From TrEMBL:
Any one GO molecular-function label of the UniProt entry: ATP binding
Assigned EC number: 2.7.13.3
Domain Histidine kinase intervals: 205-426
EC category name: transferase
Protein name: histidine kinase
Catalytic activities: ATP + protein L-histidine = ADP + protein N-phospho-L-histidine
Residue span, Response regulatory domain: 453-571
Keyword Signal included in the entry's annotation: no
Domain PAS stretches: 60-130
Statement: the UniProt record of this protein carries the keyword Transmembrane helix: yes
Organism: Xanthocytophaga agilis
Length: 711
């Protein structure tokens, strides 16, 4: 019909446009008919358009409903007040409600109680701030009381004209299985971490328990060999010492391997003499080489610098492992150590260390696995030569951690050559490095220790006896305390040049005792040198010793020369004037005060206005930090504690409050470990006390600077 109307309309218009001579009445009638056809055509087109649109809408609605009802997602709608007006079958089924029942609920009715407040606050913010799209994960509660996790996308529906909230459209995904899997992984990780901690604790305890009696055995062997024993006793004493040394090597191998496996190996970067390393290896292994009728040869490149920068202890460990290994597997001939410069740059030098022996050699099929854990050339090797099979593994890992390489070439019956390449920084040290003296040097200079007063804090009677014998031999007067509490009492009653502090003791251990001395005792007791005596070789010991305010440590069983040198070193410092205290972080109140503005003066070119502004900023910020610190301590909120201590460090350093540097470091360490809550509270109280005095001191300085600025 529409096509007919349009054709007729076209004919009439054509007729009218050609200006035929027709009656005016007829022309008017034709115009009226044409206009009528136009209206009919428009109306029909509109009806067809509306009908087509309606069909499209019906089709799209059916398709949308099919998608909504067949999807695995939970789809729902809420009104502006949060009451559910629609939920797809999946959502109804997941929560155990019919569609009619679910329409009677507020959306928070299906949120688990422990998450309800958090969810309310989150969507209240979306409502108030008109945030169109948000995402939140939370725990829900089904009709039968079971919990389910969902990840919820919410779209805010707004009235375009007035910006009113019309409602919410939500699409959620059931994350229960994913969360359970995540929780399982977290639990597994937690168990693994606890297992690692248990392993470390076991190794630490084992190390302490084995090393303590070994300390007595090795120490007494030293003393007996020095006391002119009968010829037939020398052999027995040397056998005892050799056996104890072998047991110590095994313990060290196990502990070193554990440290490397857990990624807790640390390296120093200090100036040291290469010759000291080679002399030390020669002295340590000369007796063992002579015992096997071997020549121990050491050759160094004359182009090598006298001093380099690196970790002398780790380098010594690498070379010593390889040389002692070579001696162990060589029955005749020689073991040679060569050090040669390979290349150098402006600030670094690369050195090649070659250890060659004429020993039993390594089979070709074993060369690719010789550096693997617990691997030796054959089972006969283990039975005949002993050892853990960890020495080469540890050596390779240490070399690689230092950025070096290690290779081996070997032939059965002809010997082996191990080649190590390591790069060191060049030293810019002008003062000479003091070499480690031999035993004869110690004997020749014992007068320097005469009449020194040393306090030994040690609960093991055998260790007390060993140290006492050496002290008597060196002319040192020694007093003994069996725990930290007794040590503090003796320090208050007597004057000592040095404290030798065991770490594991009843009532109060060495760490707590050292911290108490540093932070609670008066001057000059707080500045006394403290050297830790530890039977634990775990990597964290050095850091914990330094964090507790001790100056150094000696590992038991100790080398008498090492003990002698540490006493000599720190007793000499102890005899300095009062103006140069040993414990540098302690800037004493009442003398020079807690605050040192030297850093601010340097960076500002002594700009008093800038310094004044920095002090004011510190006085505004720091009390807030301290209050947050206290709150985190009281609530055992480890995350906040780590954040606050990290924030405080830079502010304290800028103002030059060195008294609190080690305390804040210790707090940060405990926060990372989530442990030692009692010590954390004590340290927080100490921070608060010191800061109160710092505020007073800074206000006085501020008044002084304001007066200067006015003038």
């Amino acid at each position: 019909m529409g096509i007919f109307h349009s054709v007729l309309d076209e004919q009439i218009k054509k007729y009218l446009d050609n200006n035929y001579l027709i009656d005016e009445k007829l022309r008017g009638l034709l115009l009226e008919i044409s206009q009528t056809y136009e209206k009919i055509s428009d109306r029909e087109e509109k009806e067809v358009s509306e009908q087509s649109l309606l069909q499209k809408l019906q089709f799209n609605e059916a398709r949308y409903r099919q998608i909504v009802e067949c999807t695995t997602d939970l789809i729902y709608g809420c009104d502006a007040e949060g009451y559910l007006i629609y939920a797809n079958p999946v959502a109804c089924q997941r929560f155990g409600y019919t569609e009619e029942e679910i329409r009677q609920l507020h959306f928070t009715d299906v949120v688990a109680l422990e998450h309800r407040e958090m969810v309310r606050d989150f969507y209240k913010r979306q409502f108030e701030e008109r945030i169109i799209d948000t995402y939140l994960e939370f725990k829900c509660l089904t009709r039968d009381g079971k919990t389910a996790w969902i990840g919820n996308n919410v779209h805010l529906q707004l009235n375009a004209e007035h910006n009113w909230v019309v409602g919410f459209q939500g699409v959620a995904r059931d994350m229960t299985e994913a969360k359970q899997a995540e929780e399982t992984l977290i639990q597994a990780r937690r168990m693994a971490e606890e297992s690692v901690k248990a392993k470390e604790h076991f190794l630490s305890v084992m190390s302490h328990e084995i090393r303590t009696p070994l300390n007595a055995v090795i120490g007494l062997s030293h003393l007996l060999l020095d006391e002119n024993p009968l010829p037939n006793q020398v052999e027995h004493l040397q056998a005892i010492k050799h056996s104890a040394d072998s047991l110590m090597i095994i313990i060290n191998d196990i502990l070193d391997f554990s440290k490397i496996e857990s990624g807790k190996v640390s390296f120093e970067n200090v100036d040291f003499k290469l010759d000291d390393i080679f002399r030390g290896i020669e002295k340590s292994l000369a007796y063992k080489a002579r015992e096997s009728n071997l020549r121990l040869l050491i050759e160094t490149d004359p182009r090598l610098p006298a001093t380099v920068v690196g970790d002398p202890l780790r380098l010594n460990q690498i070379i010593l492992n390889l040389v002692s290994n070579a001696i162990k597997f060589t029955e005749k001939g020689f073991v040679e150590v060569k050090a040669q410069m390979v290349s150098q740059k402006k600030d670094t030098i690369t050195i090649e260390f070659k250890i060659t022996d004429t020993g039993i050699g390594i089979p070709a099929n074993k060369l690719s696995t010789i550096f693997e854990s617990f691997t030796q050339a054959s089972h006969e090797t283990t039975r005949k030569y002993g050892g853990t099979g960890l020495g080469l593994t540890i050596t390779k890992r240490l070399v690689e951690l230092k950025g070096g390489t290690i290779q081996v070439k070997s032939k059965i019956g002809l010997g082996s050559t191990f080649t190590v390449l390591l790069t060191f920084e060049k030293s810019h040290l002008t003062a000479p490095v003091i070499p480690v003296p031999s035993g004869n040097t110690i004997e020749a200079s014992t007068e320097s220790l005469d009449n020194l007063q040393v306090l030994l804090v040690e609960d093991n009677r055998m260790n007390q006896l060993v140290v006492k014998k050496f002290m008597e031999k060196w002319g040192v007067r020694m007093d003994i305390a069996e725990n930290g509490i007794e040590a503090i009492e003796k320090l208050r009653e007597n004057t000592f040049s040095l404290v030798l502090m065991d770490l594991q003791m009843p009532q109060m251990d060495g760490y707590k005792a050292a911290r108490y001395i540093r932070y609670n005792m008066d001057y000059p007791y707080r500045n006394i040198p403290i050297v830790a005596l530890t039977a634990s070789a775990m990597v964290d010991v050095r850091r914990k010793v330094m964090d507790a305010g001790m100056n150094d440590f000696i590992t038991k069983p100790f080398d008498p020369r090492d003990l002698y040198l540490k006493i000599l070193k720190f007793s000499m410092k102890g005899s300095q004037s009062d103006e140069s205290p040993i414990f540098t972080p302690s800037v004493l109140p009442g003398n020079n005060g807690y605050v040192n503005l030297q850093y601010l003066e340097e960076i500002s070119a002594n700009n008093q206005e800038f310094i004044t502004d920095m002090i004011r900023l510190f006085l505004r910020q720091m009390p807030q930090f301290v209050q947050k610190l206290k709150k985190a301590c009281e609530n055992a909120n480890w995350m906040d504690l780590r954040y606050i201590t990290h924030k405080m460090k830079s502010s304290l350093s800028t103002i030059g409050i060195f008294e609190l540097e080690s305390v804040i470091r210790q707090l940060e360490t405990y926060a990372a470990q989530e442990s030692h809550l009692i010590e954390v509270v004590q340290l927080c109280n100490h921070v608060e006390r010191v800061c109160e005095e710092v505020y007073t001191e800074l206000k006085e300085k501020l008044n002084e600077k304001n007066l200067k600025l006015i003038k």
